[in-house]
Amino acid sequence: MPGLAIVTGGTRGIGAAIARLLKAEGWSVAAIYHGNDEAAERFRRDSGVSVFRWDVADEAACREGVATVEAEHGPVGALVNNAGITRDGMFHRMSWANWRAVLSTNLDSMFTMTRAVIEGMRARQSGRIINISSINGQKGQRGQVNYSAAKAGVIGFTKALALENASCGITVNAICPGYIDTDMVAAVPEDVRAGIVAEIPVGRLGQPEEVADAVAYLSSPRAAFCTGAVLTLNGGQYIANG
Ligand code: NDP
Fold it and tell me: In terms of CATH architecture, what is 4-233?
């Protein structure tokens, strides 16, 4: 199966762990990032993964970026839509800018990146699409109306796209991580973080590598019968029923 895998947000956190593991499993990996050149360069040096910079919320940039990566590395076999941001705050004080930023990076990016690869995958009758949603898209979270809405949208996107492409050799699945030990969670105030850990039955944050393992499975030939699934990976913090 391995060919080219594109991992958005692949230079830091969960995406970096995914990019490293897919590379170790034989994929040629392109990691996409947005603005942190220093982190991307460090990751490229340490991992040997190719890095490309564009905004996943920008439709033309995604179309052109995917074409550039494919020209260098061949057709995309797997797309991991992982890039995401938070702009937290109570909804009654939320700005339109913080709503748009979160919806465009976390949800519009499902369109921009997937639209750029889906026709090729359908023509080749083969592909793996893995979308990173969140526990907070399943259960909702105070201070994250924008993020919860976007991540719930990712789940609907995944299910509908899975149905449209199941007969074309393409699987589409979502992963809902709980709280994972990355910069995104490190940005949460210490006392809030301690409160979060207290709510996780396994008693700790998840590790990026634990999400990467699930992506490796879903992108492999072993997962050919798994499509439209929403995999909950949260240490028991929220037992979802769908
Ligand atoms: P990080 O903040 O650690 O890393 C985010 C990555 O996404 C970086 O590589 C960043 O690039 C890239 N990125 C952000 N915005 C854009 C953009 N507009 N265009 C291209 N790349 C972009 O995030 P995490 O690893 O914590 O999270 C990864 C995914 O997992 C996200 O979708 C997040 O919502 C989800 N998630 C995370 C959880 C957690 O606990 N950490 C829990 C549940 C879900 P750059 O370095 O240039 O900024």
Answer: 3-Layer(aba) Sandwich (3.40)
